[in-house]
């Protein structure tokens, strides 16, 4: 995400914005707000700010082999080599998948969201040695929360360290209000969780594999009950129905409960309707929640 999207010239000016929500109430954000209301928005993640890819070339930091060269960084942030935070977030996805075969462990310093060993540039200023943080701006906890509420994923530096972390991974989709009733609050909670990418990575991968099973069963003419039994047997390998499972168990079996229902589609004899309902081990504000997905499988 470019800083101009927020109405500033650089991310260094981001802390100067008093009310981030009011920024997106302007007429220039009509299309953006309309997009946030769509279903497709829950599969889009926008990251910020840029992070430092390397320290400047010099004999003391990163010397060149062929000749003596000192990179001029007197122009401030524009003189440094920055990288898109999307690559840092992608490294957390691949790291989670490499360890657990799931992309759910991508947020929190201890939960897989840490981006470690970032380059730190040390320089002299006013007679003292100082470190430049390896990010364009130091995002506060409050501003990180505000960015997440507006559908952005912020890379936040950890103070006095060379690493940063993603503390949330909200998609661009805007949560909805379902009323003040008990059912409405439950629906609101489930919808809000479906706007967060770690949970969508779990459900989307399950949905993807269901399509693989459909492809493998083309031409078999399986009955509805047989297909339902096969799908439920398959998904049970990712379920650990226990309280407070260990990190290893929770990472490899991310579901507390799961159920797949296969039904005939009325008026469309060539298809089955598949309802997938899962309850991850994750909790939101101390409350359990369920995610659901509806798809179609071809009978033959």
Question: Mind explaining what this structure looks like?
Answer:
The protein folds into 2 domains: 3-166, no CATH class; 185-298. It has a 4-stranded mixed β-sheet with strand order 1-7-8-4, sandwiched between helices. The chain has a 3-stranded antiparallel β-sheet with strand order 9-10-11. It has 300 residues and is of the alpha+beta class. The protein has helices at residues 20-23, 30-36, 85-100, 141-149, 182-194, 197-216, 224-235, 247-252; strands at 46-48, 51-52, 82-83, 114-115, 121-125, 128-132, 152-157, 164-166, 255-264, 271-280, 291-298.
Assembly type of the chains comes to single chain
Number of domains: 2
- Rg to the nearest angstrom? 23 Å
N-to-C span: 44 Å
Compute the number of helices. Answer: 8
The largest sheet, given as strand count, sense and whether it forms a barrel, is: 4 strands, mixed
Average pLDDT taken over every residue: 86
Q: What is the element string, with H for helices and E for strands?
A: HHEEEHEEEHEEHHHHEEE
**How many E-type strands?**
11
Helix share, percent:
25-40%
Give the overall shape.
elongated
Strand content: 15-25%
List unreliable stretches of 5+ residues: none
With strands numbered from the N-terminus, the spatial order across the biggest sheet is 1-7-8-4
Class inferred from helices and paired strands? alpha+beta
Task: Lay out the secondary structure.
Blueprint: H1 20-23, H2 30-36, E1 46-48, E2 51-52, E3 82-83, H3 85-100, E4 114-115, E5 121-125, E6 128-132, H4 141-149, E7 152-157, E8 164-166, H5 182-194, H6 197-216, H7 224-235, H8 247-252, E9 255-264, E10 271-280, E11 291-298
Parallel strand pairs: 1-7
Antiparallel strand pairs: 2-3, 4-8, 5-6, 7-8, 9-10, 10-11
């Amino acid at each position: 995400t470019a800083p101009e999207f927020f109405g500033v010239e650089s991310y260094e000016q981001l802390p100067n914005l008093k009310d981030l929500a009011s920024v997106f109430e302007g007429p220039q954000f009509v299309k953006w707000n309309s997009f946030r209301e769509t279903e497709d928005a829950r599969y889009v993640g926008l990251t910020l700010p840029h992070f430092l890819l390397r320290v400047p070339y010099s004999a003391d930091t990163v010397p060149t082999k062929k000749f003596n060269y000192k990179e001029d960084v007197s122009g401030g942030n524009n003189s440094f080599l920055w990288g898109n935070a999307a690559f840092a977030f992608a490294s957390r996805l691949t790291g989670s998948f490499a360890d657990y075969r799931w992309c759910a462990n991508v947020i929190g310093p201890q939960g897989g969201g840490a981006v470690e060993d970032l380059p730190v540039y040390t320089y002299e200023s006013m007679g003292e040695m100082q470190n430049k943080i390896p990010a364009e701006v130091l995002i506060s906890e409050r501003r990180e929360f505000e960015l997440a509420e507006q559908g952005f994923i912020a890379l936040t530096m950890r103070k006095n360290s060379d690493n940063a972390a993603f503390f949330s991974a909200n998609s661009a989709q805007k949560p909805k209000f379902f009323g003040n009733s008990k059912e409405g609050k439950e629906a609101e909670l489930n919808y809000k969780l479906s706007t967060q990418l770690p949970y969508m990575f779990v459900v989307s991968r399950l949905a993807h594999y269901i399509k693989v099973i459909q492809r493998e069963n083309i031409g078999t003419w399986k009955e509805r009950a047989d297909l339902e039994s096969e799908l439920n047997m398959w998904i049970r390998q990712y379920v650990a129905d226990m309280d407070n499972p260990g990190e290893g168990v929770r990472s490899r079996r991310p579901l507390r409960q799961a159920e797949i229902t296969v039904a005939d589609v009325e008026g469309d004899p060539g298809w089955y309707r598949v309802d997938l309902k899962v309850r991850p081990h994750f909790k939101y504000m101390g409350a359990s929640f369920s995610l659901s997905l509806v798809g179609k499988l071809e009978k033959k």
